[in-house]
Structure formats: C-alpha cells, structure tokens
Amino acid sequence: MAERLSQLTQIVKVQSSSPSQSQSSSLKRPMASSLGTAASSRIFAASSSKARLYLRSSYSSSPSLISFSSSKSLALCPRFCRHQRTSAVNVSSSGRFSTGASPKCAASDPDQLKSAREDIKELLKSKFCHPILVRLGWHDAGTYNKNIEEWPQRGGANGSLRFEVELKHAANAGLVNALKLIQPIKDKYSGVTYADLFQLASATAIEEAGGPKIPMKYGRVDVSGPNECPEEGRLPDAGPPSPADHLREVFYRMGLNDKEIVALSGAHTLGRSRPERSGWGKPETKYTKDGPGAPGGHSWTVQWLKFDNSYFKDIKAKKDEDLLVLPTDAALFEDPSFKVYAEKYAEDQETFFKDYAEAHAKLSNLGAKFDPPEGIVLDAGPTQAAPEKFVAAKYSTGK
C-alpha cells in the first residue's frame, strides 16, 4: 500500500512539474492515453497541492483504471459520462480520489428515453416489426452467465449485439435488420445507450401488441468495443437433442427458473420463424403469405402480431399444420414441471401476463451495469395489461 501511495503521489506531482519531468514519468502515460493530454492537464491543474490520496483495494489489481469522483465534476460529465463512464475522471474539491463516478451523471437521459419510446411506437405502426424488436432485446440480454461476476465478461444487456462479430452468431441470423430499423432512433437520441434502446424497443413492442405493461428500468451502460462481445453459443437452440434439458441448461445459467422459462416462451405468440434464418418452419403459410411487413415465414399463432396466450392454446391443441411447433415448444407440455405452467397459461391469460411481465423485466436486467446503480424508472404505477392493439382480420389471412 505504501508503494502504491508513493506511485500515485508521483502522478500528481508530475502534472505540476516542467515538460521534461512530465515526459520522464512512465506512470502518467496510461492515464493520458485514455483521456487525452489536454483533458488530463485540466484535471490535474484543478487539484490542490494539499490533495489527499484515497486508495481502494481495487487499485492494486488495476492501477490504470483509477478514476476520480467529484460533486462538481469539473465540467467533465457531458463529455465522459454517458458512453464512456468507465473512463470518466473527476477530482473532488477536497482532492479525494475514488473509483466512483459522479452521481449527477447517468448512462441514459430520461427525457430522451421517453421521446425514443414514442418514436419506437411510430416505427411499430409503420413496419409491424414487433417480433424482431422483442428478439433484439432478448438476444442482447440472453448471453448472461450468472457464474461470471466481471462486467462485461458476464454478458447480458450491455449493447454488445450492435457489433458485427456478435450479429454474425448463428442464433442472431436476421437481427441485423432489427439494428437497421432502430439505428435512426439511436442517431436521433445520442443520450440513450444501445443497451437501453434494445430493451426499450423490446418492452414497447410487447406492450404495443396488446401485452402486459413491463416494469422496466433503464440506465444500462454500453460495452465499448467488439472485443467485449461474448463468445458464441450462449443462446438457446430451437431443436436440441433433449429440448427440456437444453432449455434448463441455457436459462438456469442466466439465473431463471422453470416458471420463467415457460412464461418467456409465451412470447412466441408473436412473430414467425423463417427457414432461411433458423432452418425451421415453412417458407410461408396461409397466415403469413400476405404479411404485413415482409411476407412469408411460419407463425406459431394465427394472430401473430397480437400478444395473448394463443401460443399455449395452439400448442396444446396441435390441430393446425400451418402453425409452428418447435421441439422446444412441444417440451413445455411434455416435461412434467414445465407442463404445470403451460397448462395454467393456456387457461388463464391474466396469470400468464403477470408472470410474463415479471420474467421479461428480469431478463432485460441480466448482466447489466446500471448508472445510476438503482436505474431510471420512466413510468410509475402498477403493472397492468395494455389495451388490445391489433385486430386479427386485419393482420392475418386465411380465414
């Protein structure tokens, strides 16, 4: 500790010394490279000669990650706070150093989040892209591994899915189209992180399709580069050799239980499987040949843009060849534990909505690093079902 204190004292002293002395210090370079010479000069110039070093145990393992907190933030908050919070550097008026960030800053701006939500609603009305936006949020969050503590190595809702290396994972086939749809909204609202935007789009799509209100919170921090993307293989497969075991292996790794697995599976009431992307289903059916949106695909339900409990009813009935049932879908009524919940949801939509809303919110938070730590809540009030948004005769064919 004494040696580390001495090294950090040298950093402060170097900043007030002559240029030649500054250049001779190897300890200064890692900090300057991440912040820029001008920024670091301004920061250290603001510290007093009586600055008091405050060391945390984390310094010993990664001294180059030291940052400074400030109640005044030295006007650095707008520049560093939103998208590079992990590299933000501040100095308090007392000269106290810490790894914490200014409590006045946040990963996303609440007003911009609200405006982005309205733009997402307009996008849904014109593109009918509810299913793929749900999938986008799920696949960003679904890489979470509860056995890994470090962020972002643990995966989860951190915006990593925006990078090509992760978009190319087999389970993410076609999601580049979702990113193209959402990118103009991201460009418009720079104060919203990708991690928040993906989850905002997913929850809004559920609600606008007539599903329950999701008790969401925001403030997720983005990963900074493709090197922080998770490895391939963390997302579920549609047709594994042992479907029930596979679902548990993947979702238990995320920290989810059997009830949550079944409830989340119910989101297949929305959307279509396209064989050119997933390898499953028919190229088109009587329910999908005319769209809306791009025609084709194989839907799980007749009204595949309406969120309700039809998924469970239709799988249980197994009477329509034009409705898709994957091995992982069938497992919900074959596995004894899963079947308890699947049967309940087929009979009781209100219970399904309640359990689904809770499970969706939990999934959307997995692995996320929130700033502020408690998150940002946009809406107050109890969770309740949204009004029905779609009419079957308008959004499906074959009747």
TrEMBL record:
Pfam families: peroxidase (PF00141). Residues 268-294 are annotated as: Disordered. GO terms for molecular function: heme binding; L-ascorbate peroxidase activity; metal ion binding. Its main location: plastid. One of its GO terms (cellular component) is chloroplast. Its EC number is 1.11.1.11. Its cofactor is heme b. PROSITE patterns: PEROXIDASE_1 (PS00435), PEROXIDASE_4 (PS50873). Keywords: Calcium, Chloroplast, Heme, Hydrogen peroxide, Iron, Metal-binding, Oxidoreductase, Peroxidase, Plastid, Potassium, Transit peptide. One of its GO terms (biological process) is hydrogen peroxide catabolic process. Belongs to the peroxidase family. Ascorbate peroxidase subfamily. This is L-ascorbate peroxidase. It comes from Theobroma cacao (Cacao).
